[in-house]
Amino acid sequence: MANELTKPEELRIGVFVCECGLNIAGTIDCAAVSEYARTLDDVAVVVQNKYTCADPGQNEIKKAIREHNLNRVVVASCTPKIHEPTFRECVADAGLNPYLFEMVNIREQCSWVHQNEKEKATEKAKDLIRSGVARARVLEAQTEAVVPITKAALVVGGGIAGIQAALDLADGGHQVYLVEKEPTIGGIMAALDKTYPTMDCSI
Amino acid sequence: MMDVGRHPRIELMTFSEVESVTGYVGNFQVTVRKKARYVDASECTACAECSKVCPVAVPDEYQQGFSSRKAIYLPFPQAVPSAYILNMENCLGNNPIACGKCAEVCEKKCINYDDQDELVKIEVGVIITATGMQVYDPTEYDEYGYTRYENVITSMEFERLICAGGPTEGHFIRPSDRRAPQTIGFIQCVGSRSRDGRGNPYCSNICCMNTVKDTLLLCDHYPGIEAKVFYMDIRAFGKGFEDLYMRSKEEGVRYIRGIPGEVIENPDTRNLTLTVENTTTGRLEKHELEMIVLSQGVIPRQDGDSIRKLLTLSTTSDGFIMESHPKLKPVDAPTRGIYLAGCVESPKDVKDSVTQASAAAARASILLNAGKTKVEAITSQIDTDKCNYCGICAKVCPYNAILAPDRKAEKAPIIIQAACAGCGACAAECPQDAITMRHFTDEQMMAQIEAILEVEPHKHLLTFACNWCSYAGGDDAGTARLQYPTTCRLIRTMCSGRVDEKFVWHAFRLGAPIVLVSGCHFSDCHYISAVRWTQKRMDRMWNKLDKLGIRPERLRLEWISAAEGQKFAKVMREIEDAVKAVTTEEIEFTMKVLAEEEAKNKAKKEKRKAKAAAEVTA
Are residues A130 and A157 in the same domain? Predict the structure, then answer.
């Protein structure tokens, strides 16, 4: 048993190449990229999807994790700013620690900015995936801390937006602090006569 | 407004400013400065006796200076709280008391000349930023004569002149002779959609419809009035807007396509002659008008920098606050737990402001209702065995999340996990490599560098980009489909402050022709000031490169914000030639010099270790 624990885990990496419709596939040769990913060490499975973020794409990831006993997942698609949380949740659903997931951006920073250099863009995508896989190999599982939320809100600014936000939150049962720089709330709107489209009074 | 004043769950703090914000999602500690009002707002009954006896008269800001107010005053009749305020800058003075009349007549005795600012500490889980905008000052459009001709006014001034609560009680008159004008012109896009360096290039969103509204008010109050609107495009895109525009036209308002080039006043009649190229007819026209309203645009608050920095928010190129994602997270700030509402995010009308405010409140409620949230496990951890108590990490941390070590007591620094925001500057600065940045470890970073430079390293531009600005700037270039050379191979870090010297040396050792480090502008740094350590480290590395006989230009530093896709693409285009200009000999020389240097350092370290071991055994 002790031996089992100390033995380094065998790496089994799944690489998922997203076409994003034609957003990626219109520039990058996704089949060639997938083929390349298969040649990388420790890569157990490579799947090419039309839309990896959609349910069928996510199901493929979950299925592959189960079938191939994957312990790392690399998705090559869009910017992590959009779908990193999506895929982290997806791999967690399949029982993999979300920090064992790595995202490679081959859309915003590859296919979309090299639309006229298809071959070179494909080579770049391969390099980026190689880098993502290299990182994935040494990723470590992490536990996220759960922090409590203080049940109160601060609204900075007492114009129409601040007033509305404060009222909504307070009506919803939350304590609100509304901080306004001027001696009165109302902001710019209070200085208006009528407002469109209803042509009624502003105050 | 009244609802806010009497809501049991809203604590209203007017004449107050946020002084400091610390903490993180769900756990913000905020200090608010309640400025001295000199009138006890809870006691004041707004009886107005104080104001009656006050001998000081100054222009009334609320009435756009068309009338005066006293030094002690109520901003406007419906003000919330309904309490007077004493403006000490206007007051004749109280030390020694020069006047004191207001205090004498105040029955409730709620005027206190010795009132002091008060600092209030509050704890909140979420913050909604709704600091608004300000209107554009058209002074620099000198051809319209705003500062020279009394009868040229702004749209905000129009509001006061047409309002029943205004200085003229709603009798619309022109300032020069207090006569009701029969002809009036509106000039659109003043300070908006401008390409000549004055004003701003963006559309201010609300001015077209505001003018349509103004013309309808005029036609309603003064049937037969002749109103003309000079415009480049009328943007009546919202629900019900086209109807209003059509109604205005049906009322007889003339819409003339063309932005006037000049306004001249007739000194005798004080009438104004406006010259414009009517772009529909192609003719140059002159229009004599009794009054002109400049439809001024909307600009970001010029005093908004302090709150922006306190909340670590960035701006888009127009100066308004940047949202987390322009399409999918339009009311979230990039920092978790902070939301945006109203014109602080972009110019918008009342309905859009209300919509966005409700959206922000709903988003904030998600966290408040959940009562707890997970925070990303991207924090630094210390290996106390490696630590030599130098204390640099504690100095580097922008969040004061590291308790300084005590060398004498051999007490290692302590990293407060909840306070650590994860920039990684401490890990990069630690001379002992005793700090591990979770999810961005040295090992993980090195693995990426090695993988990227495994194939044809001399052809590629290794780029480190910070998550919040430069990486997002790269994304912005992509979204805009800006094309640039394929040379760039990018590695994401949370902050440029994480880019350890050894990453750069390793890249050069592996044959990188150019290494680019990119991060946020100093004022935009998502980690308060971590980016300053990037600058310091770069200076150190440039010096070292110079000493080793390697061109320092091969290590590049660029500040690129999340909104600067254009700049990202430009940098990539410009750097292409620099990458090509690095010769094979140069790269080989660099690899050799750095390998020797590394070997030397290693030997030195071993020697030191052996010495230390010998001392221990002795």
Answer: no
| Residue-wise pLDDT tens digits, B200-257 | 999 999 999 999 999 999 999 999 999 999 999 999 999 999 999 999 999 999 999 9
Contact between chains at B62 and A128 (C-beta distance less than 8 A): no
Q: Of B385, B412, B439, which closes a domain?
A: B439
pLDDT surpassing 60 at residue A30:
yes
- A161 and A81 in a common domain: no
Q: Look at the alpha carbons of B505, B506, B510, B514 in this order and tell me if their dihedral is positive or negative.
A: negative
- CB contact A176 to B (< 8 Å): yes
Among A110, A137, A164, give the residue marking a domain's end: A137
Distance of residue A1 Cα from the nearest chain B Cα, in angstroms: 28
Give the integer Cα–Cα distance in Å for A125 and A82. 19
| Tens-place pLDDT, residues B385-434 | 999 999 999 999 988 889 899 988 888 999 988 778 899 999 999 999 99
How far apart CA B50 and CA B71 sit, in angstroms, is 10
Q: Do B483 and A142 touch (CB under 8 A)?
A: no
CB A196 to CB B156 under 8 A?
no
Whether B212 has its CB under 8 Å from any CB of chain A: the answer is yes
CA distances from B110 to B47, B97, B428, B529 (A): 12, 17, 57, 44
Helix (H, G, I), strand (E, B) or coil at B189: strand
Helix (H) or strand (E) holding B447: helix B442-452
B23 & B167 share domain = no
Which of A109, A153, A185 has its CB closest to that of B490? A109
Question: What pLDDT score was predicted for residue A1?
Answer: 41
**Does A202 contact chain B (CB < 8 Å)?**
yes
A vs B: CB pairs below 8 A: 355
ipTM of the modeled complex: 0.86
Which residues constitute the domain of residue A184?
152-201
**One domain, residues A59 and A86:** yes
Q: Do B9 and A170 touch (CB under 8 A)?
A: yes
Alpha-helical runs (H) found in chain A: 2-6, 22-25, 30-39, 55-68, 80-93, 118-137, 160-171
Instruction: Kindly tell me the sign of the dihedral angle through the C-alpha atoms of A15, A19, A20, A26.
Output: positive
Residue where the block lists tokens 């029943």? B164
Are residues A186 and B37, on separate chains, in Cβ contact within 8 Å?
A: no
Return the closest-CA partner of residue B498 out of B421, B402, B569, B586.
Answer: B421
Name the pTM for this structure.
Answer: 0.83
Strand intervals (E) in B25-101 = 27-34, 58-59, 68-69, 72-73, 85-86
- Residue B276 in contact with residue B287, Cβ under 8 Å? yes
DSSP state for residue B18 in the 8-state scheme: E
Domain total of chain B: 5
pLDDT of residue B94: 67
Partners of residue B10 in chain A, C-beta under 8 Å:
166-167, 170, 176-178
Question: Do B323 and B392 belong to one domain?
Answer: no
Q: How many domains does chain A have?
A: 2
Which 184-203 residues of chain B touch chain A by CB within 8 A? Answer: none
